[in-house]
Amino acid sequence: MNDLKITGIDVTLCETRVKGNFADSTRNVETIGFAVVDVSTDQGLHGIGVTYHEVGGEAIRDFIKYAIEPKMIGRSPFETEVLYEENFHYMRGVGRKGLAFCAYSAVDIALWDLKGKALGMPLFRLLGGTNPEVPIYASGGWTSYSTEELVAEAKMMVSKGYKKIKLKVGVEGGNNPDEDVRRVAAVREAIGPDIGFMLDANNVWRAATAIQFANKIREYNIEFFEEPVFADDIPGLAEFKRGTDIPLATGEHEYTRYGVRDLFLNHAVDILQCDATRVGGYTEMLRIMALSQAFNKAFAPHGMEHMHMHLVAAAPNGVYLEKLFMFDEVVKSVYLNAPEPVNGIMTIPEKPGLGLELNMDYIKECKGR
Ligand SMILES: [Mg+2]
């Protein structure tokens, strides 16, 4: 199996139009899309990887097909470091961040799936972890919800056994923080004092407004506050941290270890939320995890719990996964029997690689669209 050779990469776009009313402070969610990668080998093994998009899926698909696949044919899936380096420099003029990097991330994850399958080991064990049970929090609470809908969803999450929940703030495009204060108070009242409660502002505010808001909600015992300001406003994130003692979460919009380095050097993050399906796959995420340990920060990746469960299980500073309820339909369609959280715990299957199987009927249906 060590002489495994890649023979091809198949990419399928699986997209669903969002039926509900999902908006955060800065955008409406119209489409949930997975680009599903299937790497085939000369010995019949297949590796799978996924990246997520709301827009640009066709570009991701074509980038994999026309730019990445030709570089991979005949190579070994065990060459992840060498392949990463080659591809990084090959595409560096067009993609150290953004769609090209999402494309490479999905392929890299599929290589790691192949490594685990070739060795007959679940990835979390291959990466040095021992515990298949990973805490996971529930995530939703859109700014487009009324306070009643928000409270109802929070209660639903708690009734499903989640010990921690995350909701959005920044109603009316961030122009009514006092209404956000009332919504946060209503949710804390509804869920009681023992449920972990996190907030996500999705980049909406400037540092001064975010600090003012954070100080108004301090009494509601907020476990972390995510992206209070624009993700690239690293000085603003650092300013936020100086103005409040609520821990700061960010990183879902960051790419590669270089972006993460700057968050750490500028004291602009407490809980690092990078997404392996964007930052460069498992290969780059393992470096980022090591960096987060060196800076003694918590690691809690963004969404994509089936892509991230092995990493959090293996990371000494891994705290929890995020389950976005909005992804339920596409997740249930794309995978066969993907594990689901029970009482706030995701249990990783003891199967080789990622331990996931594609629903090929659905994949074929997506190809036909
Ligand atoms: Mg977020």
TrEMBL record:
It holds the Pfam family MR_MLE_C. Residues 147-247 form the Mandelate racemase/muconate lactonizing enzyme C-terminal domain. Its cofactor is Mg(2+). InterPro entries: Enolase-like_C_sf, Enolase-like_N, Enolase_C-like, Mandel_Rmase/mucon_lact_enz_CS, Mandelate_racemase_C, Mandelate_racemase_N_dom, RHMD-like. The keyword Magnesium applies. Keywords: Magnesium, Metal-binding. The keyword 4Fe-4S does not apply. This is Mandelate racemase/muconate lactonizing enzyme family protein. It comes from Laedolimicola intestinihominis. The lineage of its organism: Bacteria, Bacillati, Bacillota, Clostridia, Lachnospirales.
